[in-house]
């Protein structure tokens, strides 16, 4: 697949190994229609297939929105079966991002509502511009979330706060999103990409398999009892000693030099 095939997205390599997907429907505030969702899943797979890929960033084009939700215009006349199918397409895209071997960071610039917030939460963590507005306003449109928001929001902010946001449909600004743990950092919009690339570059310097293992372990921590989670951590810790990167990382420490990881 060629990058040019992604008509609804821009794909760029910002630095060696640091890839950026930009949703490209600024006139519709980057609303997620079926085509965007399908291209997003394909783009993640395409970037993963690039041998040097280490970290993925996702943002929205324009200065108003990350994504203002699933595309209401496309959705509004669906029947129950079609709506379920649409939900499954969105769910598959969110799982594709969550299950990527690459760490994924959402760079939220403006409105991040409904499906947009669900997309951001499928990423490993969220950096936000100070103009970001988060929310799951689906109930105001007569539906519950359809791309996993009811499950991912409680895992991010706890059940009480998630219930408040899901049941009222209220929107929260960046500083409140930071306070409740929905996003990790807030900054002026013009610094968002730079900070994201900087953080991605810091991750890209680390051993890729160890990074991938950490991503997986954090994800399962919410689903496992602590013994199962710790058992999985032990297994992956042991497995990492079969990698060249472990020899390189610990060797470099004892030899007082910077490690150079290859992902092997
Ligand atoms: N879908 C489609 N178009 C959208 C959109 C959206 N979610 N959000 C904005 N747009 C379009 C507007 O229609 C407008 O298009 P034109 O009229 O210019 O052609 C353009 O983007 C600019 O929007 P506004 O003129 O409204 O801009 P404002 O600055 O005045 O307002 C706003 C910005 C974000 C406050 C407002 O646009 C807004 O409230 N947008 C909708 C936000 C929202 O409710 N998001 C949640 C969407 S629902 C499920 C599957 C999926 C889902 C649920 C269930 N099942 C299958 C069960 C997911 C649901 C959602 O995500």
Describe the structure.
With 264 residues, this protein is an alpha/beta fold. The protein is globular, with a radius of gyration of 19 Å. It has 2 domains: 3-204, 2-enoyl-CoA Hydratase, Chain A, domain 1; 208-254, Lyase 2-enoyl-coa Hydratase, Chain  A, domain 2, CATH 1.10.12. The protein has helices at residues 34-48, 72-75, 80-98, 115-122, 149-157, 159-168, 174-179, 189-204, 208-221, 226-240, 244-254; strands at residues 9-15, 18-23, 55-60, 65-67, 104-108, 111-113, 125-129, 133-135, 171-173, 185-187. A 6-stranded mixed beta sheet has the order 1-2-3-5-7-10, with helices on both faces. 39% of the residues are buried. Helix 4 packs across helix 5. Bound molecules: 4-(N,N-dimethylamino)cinnamoyl-COA.
Task: Name the features.
single chain; 264 residues; alpha/beta; 2-enoyl-CoA Hydratase, Chain A, domain 1; Lyase 2-enoyl-coa Hydratase, Chain  A, domain 2; 2 domains; six-stranded mixed beta sheet; four-stranded mixed beta sheet; 10 strands; 48% helix; globular; binds 4-(N,N-dimethylamino)cinnamoyl-COA
